[in-house]
Amino acid sequence: MSSDPKKIETVLTENRIFKPDEEFQKKAHISSMRDYQELYKKSIEDNLGFWETAANELHWFRKWDSVLNEESAPVYKWFVNAKTNISYNCLDRHLNSATKNKAALIWEGELGGQRTLTYNQLFHEVNRFANALKKLGIQRGDRVAVYLPMIPELAISLLACARIGAVHSVIFAGFSSESIRDRVLDCEAKLIITSDGGWRKGNVLPLKNIVDEAVAGCACVKHVIVVKRGQGDPFPCHIKEGRDHWYHRIIDDVSSRCEPEQMDSEDMLFLLYTSGTTGKPKGIIHTTGGYMVYTYLTTKYVFDLKPEDVYWCTADIGWITGHSYIVYGPLMNGATILMYEGAPNWPDKGRLWKMIQDHSVTIFYTAPTAIRAFMKWGDKWPNKYDLSSLRLLGTVGEPINPEAWIWYHRIIGKDKCPIVDTWWQTETGGIMITPLPGCTPLKPGSATLPFFGIEAEVISDDGSQADAGILAITKPWPGMLRGIYGDMQRYKQTYWSKWPNKYFPGDGAKKDSDGYFWILGRIDDVVNVAGHRIGTAELESVFVEHHMVAESAVIGIEHELKGQCLVGFISLKEGIDTTDDLAQELKEWIGKKIGRFAMPEKIIFSPDLPKTRSGKIMRRLLRDVASGRTLGNISTLADASVVERLKVKYEED
Ligand code: PRX
After folding, report:
1. Is 364 in the pocket of ligand 1 (CB under 6 A)?
2. Residue nearest to atom 10 of ligand 1 (CA)
3. Per the domain annotation, does 522 fall within a domain?
């Protein structure tokens, strides 16, 4: 468990409190702690009434028979028998108001090109693409994989799938062809949407070529749609007659009106694969009605959206943050969204700050790992630009260390912008524990208090409530996952078997005397590297596929910039020499098999790995070795000399 006592000590010595800025407070949706507490109390006491009121702010073709059905728990059903369409709520709903001609999406390419789509234009684009998908035979319920860079067509693809009731499964464009193949085969996607390439740090990522390799082993894939990102000529790629279709051609001769499917509230909206504690990624299922209501309401309150805001979330749509807080939540709220294709340090380290200045961004939502990199690059970069348009900052994805929080507050927020440190997961669909910017006094490093309707507890190992222990969510909520695709047993086992009727998110947490939550990181074998969730078991099984590797154990240790990084302990097959070149080859092996973002920081060769008498690798001791700590209890080891030798060797290196 990464919630070691030292860390608890550190977070608890953080006792600075930042009250909301008065100007901000005056205009906020929720502007006093009294209002928060009153509404929170109501949202818990009349939980279903609360969610019903929220749902009534959106459009439904047919309303629900009941708000919640718990009969098949833990597969809860929300807004039972209601019919709606989330693309209708993101687009059509705004066409009868002034929002119609407002910018929905302002996009900037890495090389500087810009595109702006109003709500009306986005509506027509989505409708056309929805018709194109239908033309290729995609029907309600079919799975569509999406492997695109951060270009408008990525958002358009999600909305077009949602419009016709196809289930999208976005695969982050940093994944390898093998990772694509695993995911496509698991959900039996019929179609993949990709592009000839995308820009990243001045280079072109050859996405279509990567998809070609992946699709070679996927009989289920009947069509590939290719967005042309190259200007003038496309980036070099092969178009296979009959299977591959240029995006711009197939949207050319279709109508720009496509009636939205009337989806059942519990029809699947999307699948998103995430890492767990076994080697196989989990296809997290989100359905339509509950996810829609939850992302709508959390966006409204957490980002305190106003019609004139320019909202920028720097996540990639390939992860849940982009689904919920670039596409669905902000569009349902009629916001203007800024979207950026490339790297934050291209062409120089001032790129993001320049974009904030150029687009007068008011809300900026990013990850602690990025903030630590900005800090390292130096104040001179943000100080070169006018950041006075900013009024609200946010963070997500990992615990933020108080030092980074204070820097973000002072250098980017100029001491006036609240920071919402939002705790949530792929599985929760939306933000669960968070400050509300107009009322919550902030403590650097704490995600503070539960959102409306959310009940959270910290539980000790024996199951009783405690100040430090494991986080639990004790009430169902509309945005919750509904299962793991094709493996409901794993769903029940992973999330609902630890305590009766309580959701287990896998995070350690601490609650202070004000009831504030301090999230301490994962307690399972999932490592959070630069905000990306990586299962150590996944890497271990890839390592042993290498012909020279006999056995491996992967652990996460603290890293100054990335929060955590991966270390692979490898034992090689007989007769193979350990060399620096082989260590590099093994790192690249992971890069090739999973994706570069998952490459371990360090490879440590060891003839044996420390094991218990029953043969279980003791990762806790490997963490001690790699972090340079004194070894913990070694009494259960089959052979204690293994870890002692390893420690000596590690310290000598
Ligand atoms: O450990 C928690 C951490 O990220 C995990 C969820 O990862 P993922 O499903 O990829 O979603 C990330 C974006 C929502 C959590 O189990 N985490 C997320 N937000 C925070 C956090 N840890 C501390 N503070 C946060 N604000």
Report:
1. no
2. 533
3. no
